[in-house]
């Protein structure tokens, strides 16, 4: 099976209001032996999770450590199955026979960029690995996709022969994003993708994700404990507490009119000026809060 070489495109097949990826009444609980310390303290199960990711939209998932954010990421990546409830993709139930194709169309970007890379393998081989593992593809097609992927994330060809210890954390995260993009996925599941980076590089990666969403029509699940980053990037937000959803809605609904004391307490620690919302026009994020375009591009 070969993949066609196609330029980045805006996906228009589905209306943005229609669900692309859904969790419906999902329950999940790890066995006691596999629970982390945070999960033991914060609650180790997911309870009746209902969440929708829409085409071309960025959905933010906020919660403390152990609240279940990364478990939701694993469910949406098809790495584990719910113990109750169902997952739907493009309106159809995600069944075991659909998992192989699904995992090509929904790709992860993890928290620690250098940890996600093989320390002994050059960047070029790591970016193309998903293609070579999953498809019988001509070398020329593979190289064309590689060139397109690194260009999309702002990297030059010089990085392809380097090993992880020879590049910065920001470059490593761009490599991880390029590795996901090379399969031309429809959804990126970003689990704390900037928390391990310094503030300047965080802004650059957030800018990149925003640009990719707009230029390629990507859907994003952006998981973070940083409300400011979520406010900047996401138009819809879900808030988790001990495995249960306590708030869900548009960015304006969740950040400007929170319903729960929990969300109000989280927001009380963040000045309005840092939320990235123009209070006179709430639906438009203020780029100054994150520093969009205020930092030089990383090379």
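^ Assign residues to that structure.
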């Amino acid at each position: 099976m070969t993949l066609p070489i196609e330029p980045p495109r805006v996906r228009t097949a589905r209306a943005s209001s229609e669900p692309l990826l859904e969790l419906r009444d999902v329950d999940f609980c790890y066995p006691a032996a596999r629970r982390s310390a945070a999960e033991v303290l914060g609650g180790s199960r997911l309870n009746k999770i209902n969440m929708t990711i829409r085409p071309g939209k960025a959905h933010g998932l906020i919660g403390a450590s152990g609240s279940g954010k990364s478990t939701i990421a694993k469910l949406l990546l098809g790495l584990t199955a719910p113990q109750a409830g169902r997952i739907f993709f493009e309106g159809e139930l995600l069944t075991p026979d659909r998992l192989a194709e699904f995992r090509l169309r929904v790709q992860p970007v993890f928290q620690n960029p250098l940890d996600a890379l093989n320390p002994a393998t050059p960047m070029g081989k790591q970016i193309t690995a998903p293609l070579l593992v999953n498809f019988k593809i001509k070398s020329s097609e593979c190289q064309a996709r590689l060139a397109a992927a690194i260009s999309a994330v702002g990297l030059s060809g010089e990085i392809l022969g380097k090993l992880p210890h020879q590049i910065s954390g920001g470059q490593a995260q761009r490599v991880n994003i390029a590795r996901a993009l090379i399969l031309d996925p429809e959804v990126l599941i970003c689990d704390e993708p900037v928390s391990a980076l310094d503030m300047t590089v965080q802004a650059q990666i957030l800018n990149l994700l925003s640009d990719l969403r707009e230029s390629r029509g990507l859907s994003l699940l952006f998981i973070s404990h940083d409300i400011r980053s979520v406010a900047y990037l996401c138009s819809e937000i879900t808030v988790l507490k001990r495995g249960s959803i306590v708030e869900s809605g548009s960015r304006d609904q969740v950040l400007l009119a929170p319903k729960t004391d929990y969300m109000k307490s989280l927001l009380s620690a963040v000045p309005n000026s840092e939320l990235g919302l123009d209070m006179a026009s709430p639906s438009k994020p203020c780029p100054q809060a994150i520093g969009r375009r205020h930092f030089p591009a990383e090379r």
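The radius of gyration is 19 Å.
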